[in-house]
Design a protein that fits this description.
Helices cover about 5% and strands about 30% of the residues. It has about 750 residues and is mainly β. Among the domains are: about 160 residues, Leucine-rich repeat, LRR (right-handed beta-alpha superhelix) (Alpha-Beta Horseshoe), CATH 3.80.10.10; about 120 residues, Leucine-rich repeat, LRR (right-handed beta-alpha superhelix), CATH 3.80.10.10; about 100 residues, Immunoglobulin-like; about 80 residues, Immunoglobulin-like. Strand 46 and strand 47 form a beta hairpin. The longest helix has 21 residues. It starts with a helix and ends in a 9-residue tail after the last strand.
């Protein structure tokens, strides 16, 4: 086709040059069909009428070389095939907004034509319509153009600017046909109503930058392929499809501004949109983008810089596979990282996944260069092989929300040496044939988090380098084959009070458990000695285990906690409330003490009712006074004492002491006596001489001894008779007389 077109081109030049030598310059008019044409002496060709322009519209005797301008009147609907072929002097053409078809080779070989404005009415620009218009610099494509045939602008070597306004121009029928291929084309402006950029539209052109406006929805196959000078691309918000190799081979492209809000398709695995863009280092994702499509930036080995904004909710399949990224932060707006999204990013050493992401797809980071990874608590699913063959990965922290971990998720991570496992209730963790950590030959330490309840089936199967495991108190279930083939296992520290129940012997299949040291807190040692499977370990107390922590949650109010009047009754009791962490099936022990001072140390053990319970009955029969009681709570050698409770026994107040001594007594010995009111008050009277007078009285053991007559005053005292510390006293005057003479015996 190209050779035949070139033949026509040069043949046309010979014809028109020959005609120029034989025809004189004069105004000529002719009519073909419904159209009339007039060519004036200045080379201006005017075409009027309505309807189609028939083929062979230009008579053979017309000097095509003399035509300098063409004005086509409104009403003409087509420009026929070859209508202005070889008009080498044609510099300008006015195409009305009634034309809908521009025929094959209609302006081919118009080597002086500098610009053309295709009106909005035109629908089809046919084969080679403007081929070899060597001076054509500016082209405007109207909004109605839907078809541009092969070679329509081929050979337009001076073309610099294209204003492309075709709303929905279809792809060329020939998949190898380029629309605007001139290397001189440096400026392309896409109109504000354009929906589709057709395949190969600007492939091979010399544009240096391109802005795809927000109205564009589709960028066709290879649309900007091999634009060797293209450095910057801005993709508008409305783009939803970018077909195969749209920007392939743009070797100078360094920066892409990607603003497509919800683009669903970018290229194909065999023809990525940006394949061979070897200089592309930076991609800026717009703040309204919600999805990074599948294959978006596949195989961009030079891509090192990208920021994912908080608007993005999904990172598509293979979106950044085999790129040169060195670090990436996944914001909390992202819900899912799709299959192979960052696969084979060997330079990618740092990955930060925000708390909010819920899923990591199969192979998402497979064979990447990451050195450590923290899986946030929001992640529920980790896909098969998600981190497979990350040979630089040394540390993994699994968040508490993980529910499923796919087969071989971390398989082949040969440098991995530590896993912190916090998944509270993970129910699937790899298969028997492909465990999650298969081939992690350096993994020596697994730390199980404090809130983990379930260790799933196959969880740490085949860890040939695993030597130590720590199991927290929270674990209640360990799945089958969870630690099978961990032949190097040396020590398990188990903080669980009760042995994880329903354990199957194959949990430790191919592990010589009788040689594995099982460290158990001394408090719970007995629980394991008789437990299935556990009893076969080399059991020893864990001296480094955290001691239980006792908290007394209920004390009493100071300074007076119990006050009774008269005597303690069976209703007078003291109670403490205590708890222990971690919770234990071993009961707390209680011991009550009595003290003489307000202190919870140095007391004397009580032995009465409740003395070894949390509720203690205060002994009855306590004399009036102040007593201090406290409780010591203990478990496994750890003890905590409560505050001291104050118990104050108040006496029944004495109202009177009534003397039983006669009005007078004789010199000599007399036993003092009196009664105390009320009769249930303290009856223990202490007697003292207040004033002996002339009687030489003395007092011992309540016996008053007088030697002479006179008056003696004694004081009766009831200790604490009014209140504790306040005695009740009564002074009694006693008259002492000589014994009367009854006889004088000579």
């Amino acid at each position: 086709m190209v050779n035949s077109v070139l033949t026509i081109k040069y043949f046309a030049k010979i014809i028109v040059l020959t005609m120029a030598m034989t025809i004189t310059a004069q105004a000529q008019t002719w009519q073909i069909g419904s159209l009339t044409a007039t060519l004036d002496d200045d080379g201006a060709l005017a075409i009027s009428g309505t309807g189609v322009m028939q083929n062979n519209f230009m008579p053979s005797d017309i000097d095509r070389a003399s035509i300098k301008t063409v004005i086509i009147a409104q009403g003409v609907t087509t420009i026929s095939d070859g209508a202005f072929l070889g008009c080498i002097s044609l510099t300008a053409v006015d195409i009305p907004n009634s034309v809908n078809i521009i025929g094959n080779m209609a302006f081919s070989g118009c080597i002086s034509l500098t610009s053309v404005d295709i009106p909005n009415s035109v629908e089809t620009i046919n084969f080679s319509a403007f081929r070899d218009c060597e001076s054509l610099a500016v082209v405007t494509i109207g909004s109605g153009v839907s078809t541009v045939r092969e070679g329509a602008f081929a050979g337009c070597t001076a073309l610099t600017t294209v204003h492309f306004n075709a709303i929905n121009c279809s792809d060329p029928t020939n998949v190898n046909a380029n629309l605007f291929t001139s290397a001189s084309l440096t400026t392309v402006e896409i109109g504000n109503n354009v929906k589709r950029i057709p395949a190969r539209a600007f492939a091979g052109s010399g544009i240096t930058e391109i802005t795809i406006p927000d109205n564009v929805e589709i960028i066709g196959d290879w649309a900007f392929q091999n634009c060797a000078s293209l450095a910057t691309v801005t993709i508008g918000a409305g783009v939803n499809t970018i077909f195969n190799g749209a920007f392939a081979g743009c070797t100078a492209l360094t920066t892409v501004y990607f603003n497509a809000i919800n683009c669903s398709t970018i290229g194909h695995t065999s023809s990525p949109a940006f394949s061979d863009c070897i200089s592309l280092k930076k991609v800026v994702i717009g703040n309204n983008v919600t999805r990074i499509p599948d294959l978006a930036f596949l195989n961009l080995s030079g891509l090192t810089e990208i920021t994912i904004p908080n608007s993005v909710t999904q990172i598509g399949r293979m979106a950044f596979e085999s790129t040169g990224l060195t670090e990436i932060t996944i914001p909390n707006s992202v819900k899912h990282i799709d299959v192979n999204a960052f696969r084979n990013c060997t330079a990618l050493t740092t990955v930060i996944i925000a708390n909010g992401v819920t899923g990591i797809g199969n192979g998402a980071f497979e064979s990447s260069g990451i050195t450590e990874i923290i899986i946030p608590n929001s992640i529920e699913t980790i896909g098969e092989g998600a981190f497979r063959d990350c040979v630089s990965l040394t540390s993994v922290v699994l968040g508490n929300g993980v529910l499923t971990i796919g087969d071989g998720a971390f398989a082949g991570c040969t440098a991995l040496n530590k896993v912190n496992y916090n998944a509270v209730e993970c129910f699937y963790m790899g298969s028997y044939l492909l465990p999650v950590f298969d081939g992690c030959i350096s993994l020596a330490t697994v730390e199980i988090g404090e809130n983990v309840i379930n260790i799933p089936n196959h969880a740490f199967r085949n860890l040939s380098g695993l030597t130590k495991i720590t199991i927290p108190n929270s674990v209640t279930h360990i799945g089958v084959w969870a630690f099978s083939n961990c032949a190097a296992l040396e020590e398990i520290t188990n903080h669980a009070i009760e042995p994880p129940r329903n354990i199957n012997p194959n949990v430790f299949e191919n592990v010589e458990i009788e040689k594995v040291l099982l460290r158990i807190s001394a408090c719970w040692l007995q629980n394991y000695i008789s437990a299935n499977v556990w009893r076969d370990f080399n059991i020893a107390p864990d001296l480094s285990a955290d001691l239980p922590e006792i908290t007394i949650t209920s004390h009493w109010t100071s300074p007076v906690d119990i006050m009774v009047s008269g005597a303690i009754t069976e209703n007078n009791r003291l109670t403490v409330s205590a708890s222990v962490m971690p919770p234990s099936n071993v009961p707390l022990a209680y011991q009550w003490f009595r003290n003489t001072t307000n202190s919870n140390t140095g007391g004397t053990e009580e032995t009465g009712f409740g003395a070894k319970e949390n509720t203690f009955w205060i002994p009855t029969g306590l004399a009036a006074g102040t007593y201090y009681f406290y409780c010591e709570v203990s478990i496994c050698g750890v003890s905590v004492s409560s505050e001291a409770a104050t118990v104050m026994v108040q006496p029944i107040p004495v109202t009177d002491i009534i003397s039983l001594i006669p009005y007078y007594i004789h010199v000599g010995d007399f036993t003092l006596s009196a009664t105390v009111s009320p009769n249930n008050a303290n009856q223990n009277i202490e007697w003292r001489i207040k004033d002996a007078g002339d009687t030489d009285a003395t007092l011992e053991n309540n016996i008053l001894t007088t030697l002479r007559p006179g008056t003696v005053t004694v004081t009766a005292i009831i200790k604490d008779g009014t209140a504790i510390g306040v005695d009740f006293t009564r002074d009694i005057d006693i008259t002492i007389r000589h014994e009367p003479v009854t006889d004088i015996i000579e």
